[in-house]
Amino acid sequence: MTRVKRGYTARRRRKKIRLFASTFIGAHSRLTRTTTQQRMRALVSSHRDRSRKKRDFRRLWITRINAVTREDRVSYSYSKLIKNLYKRQLLLNRKILAQIALSNKNCFDMISNKIQIK
């Protein structure tokens, strides 16, 4: 039976992990065990934060729309605007509404006046 050298496979696996963690600080980029732990932690965080990013952007758009909606009228709010949008079956998502509210306030006012139910 010939002798089997096992270095290549293990070295290749560790090298791949070390390349992933090359920007980490201190032992997190040098020691294999801590590098593996930090890699798992980083992947968990990135997976969690992908959905959190969507949530945060939606909150930002709602805040922007609400701020522009309340500027002129006292009793009008974001919730009433969205309710009227759905009643009129005008399909504009919050991202587009926020962009219109920031870049072209006259157009946003026209939309809100048009859909406002009296």
TrEMBL record:
InterPro entries: Ribosomal_bL20, RIBOSOMAL_L20_CS, Ribosomal_protein_bL20_C. CDD domains: Ribosomal_L20. GO terms for cellular component: chloroplast; ribonucleoprotein complex; ribosome. Signal peptide: none annotated. Keywords: Chloroplast, Plastid, Ribonucleoprotein, Ribosomal protein, RNA-binding, rRNA-binding. One of its GO terms (biological process) is translation. It is found in: Plastid, Chloroplast. GO terms for molecular function: rRNA binding; structural constituent of ribosome. Gene3D superfamilies: 6.10.160.10, Ribosomal protein L20. It holds the Pfam family Ribosomal_L20. Binds directly to 23S ribosomal RNA and is necessary for the in vitro assembly process of the 50S ribosomal subunit. It is not involved in the protein synthesizing functions of that subunit. PANTHER family: 39S RIBOSOMAL PROTEIN L20. NCBIfam families: rplT_bact (TIGR01032). Belongs to the bacterial ribosomal protein bL20 family. This is Large ribosomal subunit protein bL20c.
